Amino acid sequence: MALPLSYNWKNLFVRKTTTVMTVLVIAAVVAVFSWLLGFREALTRSLSFASDQRKLIVLRQASTSETNSAIPPDDFNKLTQLNQELAVDPVTKNQQKSPEMIVQVSLPRLRDGGSTNANVAVRGATDEAFVVHKNIAISQGRKFEQGALEVIVGEQAARQFAGLNIGDTINLGYSGNRGYRVVGHFSANGGPMESEIWGPLTTLMNSYLRNAYSSVSVRLTDEVDPKEVISRIEGPAIELTAQTEAQYWDAQAKNVRTYLTIVSVLVGIMCAAAAFSIANTMFSSVAARSREFAMLRTIGFSGRQILASIIVESIFLSLLGGALGCAACLAWLRLAGNTKDMFGASTFTTMAFEIRLTPWTVLIAIAGISAVGILGAVVPGIRASRLRVVTALREA
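-> structure tokens emitted (396 positions)
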């Protein structure tokens, strides 16, 4: 018969100070780990909606992003050579290609009361953009009118930055002297474009004194291979460069992945510290309870049962710390805000997203720290299971 769980539970509170310190170390690890998991999940979720393999983003050769690309109208017109490759708008019968211009505007963040600003992408687009970018949908208000000083704002940007409510006016233009009125909000299934502001292409180009497009988004037919189309775009007849949407946004998230790698290493170090703390607690417990373990062996409990008992106590410690850590993470997200933004690798504009503590995140965090707890308990548990009864009673 195994030792009752109540026995293991009560033993945690015999050495209260040690138990509390260990639980706090575990809680700190779990809180950071949960936040990291939520961050990674939010970023992955956002980028997953920007993975349309039938959509290409065309840039000037040698450009790494839309913000450092410039495509003159003459080069844009070369894309008409893609007769069979580009999908056709069923309404207008035009090729589905969308010339677009990207600029930046500095806006205050809502989460810190406007004490810091971030660069938000402003995209000039034609009506054809809403056909090429299929996931763009007006969620509130209406779409801007071509030629008017009007813009629509992505839902993530509206939640993250000040002055983007419907009816507000944003100062845009080369000198910031053109007031554009927000007439609607749009969704992009949570993708990166929800962090942008959209307005009429020609109006914004005039406001910023631009005579070239930043990029062209094109939609391919179902029959063609994107690699072949990219090869043709980069060939001598057109001499531009192109990427699928997934490739483009994956490249822009490069710096974010570096950040995640660094944080993951730090969390690994913290997990090692947690395992050491658990092992230290269990070693102290074994040393203080040698006579108790000897008595348990005398009345018939085996070494394996004592080992299992030590591991169960360690799991209890991990669960207590894990629950406290998840609660701390949730409290932090509510107090500090769960909307975050990060710069793209070469766009110099922000991508906003929401970090959420989902049931799946909690489950992974609790399971992970329980595994750490088991590792930390194995060595002291083996030591307890191998105590010689006579020696232990004599030393006690």
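The first strand starts at residue 55 and ends at 59.
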